[in-house]
Design brief:
Blueprint lengths: L1 E3 L2 E9 L6 E9 L5 E9 L1 H11 L6 E2 L3 E5 L2 E9 L5 E8 L2 E8 L2 H15 L10 E17 L2 E8 L7 E4 L14 E7 L6 E8 L8 H9 L12 E3 L1 H9 L3 H9 L4
Length: about 260
């Protein structure tokens, strides 16, 4: 069962007649008015997702519960708990529905989400974020930075330009320059702002450091685009400084016309 906006839904994945190793979509049935809706999405079955989650913690012998579908930062995701032999919840797992090899687990839901977003970003695969998803790439000076270790993974928390309204969170896997970054360094980051606590950074570059690399490595760096840069993900890139310059150069009439188009 899945709960959404006060309603309870029965959920089940639908597989094709000839092959039950993958789903062709899933059905949600509203338990109140009995209406049913099918969402077409090719991906893994619940059983395959459970095996993948159990494989992530196979050394601990945890058993996965039947997963439910979630929207995690725009990524269609299976979510399940991992229990021990006594039936106690020990960890949580998130898996990408369209590619269940992209999986993350941890002891808390928030830590699992962070690890999952990093796993999606590292996979380099295209992600269907839907419509009107905005990505930001900004430059600024590090005001504060500190590291925290969660379940064996290192995360860096940082603030740019003394702006305490935004707390950025960066996994150590995003960049090798993070351990040597200090207050006062100028950096360039890319992120998707969910307005939900700490902001997950998907790309990090310390502009104070320049390293000579081979031409082959330079070509590889250009090919390896993050979630925001990839054209396949249809993320709308937002450049606040560039937009501000465009706004300042517009006439009063152009500004008025643009403001009319904004939703009320």
């Amino acid at each position: 069962m899945v709960f959404h906006d006060g309603d309870c839904y029965y959920y089940t994945g639908m597989s094709s007649v000839g092959d039950d190793n993958g789903t062709v979509g899933f059905i949600m049935v509203n338990t109140r008015d009995k209406s049913a809706k099918m969402y077409r999405m090719v991906g893994a079955t619940e059983e395959a997702a459970m095996r993948s989650a159990e494989g992530k913690v196979q050394n601990m012998g945890y058993i996965a519960t039947t997963p439910i579908p979630l929207n995690v930062s725009g990524v269609p995701t299976y979510f399940c708990t991992l229990k021990d032999n006594e039936g106690l919840v020990k960890q949580y797992a998130m898996l990408k529905i369209k590619d269940y090899s992209v999986v993350a687990s941890d002891q808390s839901i928030m830590a699992t989400k962070r690890a999952f977003i990093n796993a999606v970003n590292s996979s380099g695969a295209a992600v269907d974020f839907g419509e009107d998803v905005y990505g930001y790439t900004v430059e600024g000076k590090i005001s504060r930075i500190n590291a925290n270790i969660e379940s064996g993974e290192t995360y860096y928390y940082l603030i740019l330009d003394d702006d305490t309204t935004k707390l950025f969170l960066v996994s150590y896997m995003v960049s090798e320059e993070l351990p040597i970054t200090r207050e006062g360094d100028k950096v360039k980051i890319s992120y998707m702002d969910e307005a939900n606590g700490a902001i997950n950074v998907v790309a990090f570059d310390n502009l104070e450091f320049t390293q000579e690399i081979s031409e082959a490595q330079e070509r590889l760096n250009k090919e390896q685009k993050n979630l925001i840069q990839s054209d396949d993900n249809h993320v709308i890139e937002v450049d606040p400084k560039k937009n501000e310059e465009i706004w300042e150069n517009m006439s009063d009439e152009e500004k008025a016309e643009l403001l009319k188009e904004l939703p009320k």
